[in-house]
Design a protein that fits this description.
81% of the residues lie in helices and 0% in strands. The chain is built from three helices and no strands. The longest helix is centred in the middle third of the chain and has 36 residues, at 39-74. It is elongated and about 55 Å long.
């Protein structure tokens, strides 16, 4: 079992925090709809969920990019992504 460097562990913690926040916001949206809240309030909260998910996705891609740059120095990256693959991941989130 390999251990993650501190930066990778910190990135993972940030991503998980953002995903937990989005999960809570989504639960709030469901409750809002069930209780008949106004459209404007629901859409505003949905936008917050969407933003949190995108931020988590960008953090995941950025961490992978950073790791590949570091690994390029010592050629240990076993799951290196090509420039095209990274671009595709970024565009998936856009």
């Amino acid at each position: 079992m390999t251990t993650q460097p501190a930066n990778a562990a910190e990135s993972t913690a940030l991503v998980l925090n953002r995903l937990h926040r989005a999960q809570g916001q989504l639960a709030g949206v469901i409750t809002m709809i069930e209780s008949g809240r106004e459209c404007r309030d629901v859409v505003t909260q949905l936008a917050a969920v969407s933003h949190a998910l995108h931020r988590a996705g960008f953090k995941i891609v950025a961490a992978q990019l950073r790791q590949c740059v570091l690994d390029e120095q010592d050629s240990t990256c076993t799951d290196r992504l090509s420039e095209e693959e990274l671009e595709k991941l970024f565009l998936t989130l856009a």
